Predict the 3D structure of the following.
Amino acid sequence: MTAGWMEELGAERASLGRASTAARVADVLRSHVTQGRLLPGTRLSEEEIGAALGVSRNTLREAFRLLTHERLLTHEFNRGVFVRRLDADDVRDLYAFRRIIECGAIRRGAVLGRLGGAPLEAVRRAVVSGEQAARADDWNGVGTANMAFHQAVSALSDSPRVDETMRHLLAELRLVFHAMAAPKEFHQPYLEDNRAILELLTAGDHEGAVAALLDYFDAAEAQLVAAV
């Protein structure tokens, strides 16, 4: 568990409200996974998290159940609930799914005329955010910006179901990223790839963007399979 994570979690207590649901609590915890604040293997304390968020034990247990179903957590008998560690087979499956979802989103976005304006602006903001984080030597921030980039690419499909699926998928993927011992060396080349994909989308070359994304996925999958 990263330093200060529990304090950051407590700061979100007010946003939950008294009638918070397990789904909302799961959203908060998933977000912390996606942002790299929770590491694989971390034991999640019902007492500490419940107190930080001001939710009942039953609500928290239901949130844990939802996240276990999403393959983000695992329950170990007589030991508790832990953030899941993913293996090489998980990585291969995640990337197979990403090829379907993100490449399909770009092609669907081209059909819908979404490769410009507000939809593409979200992709641009994520690219710029990653570049700014790199200049600040904030490689965890670069990883978070990369999550935002791929969420924005999938949003080109204009499908709430795709958006939700990607939120779950990217949280799993962030757990895999922790396997990289040198995050700067891992993330830095993909900043240029993200910029190149943005430029292809801006130029209206959606098939060129798809081809670049497929090359990107091949390289990243090989690195991560080797690491885990």
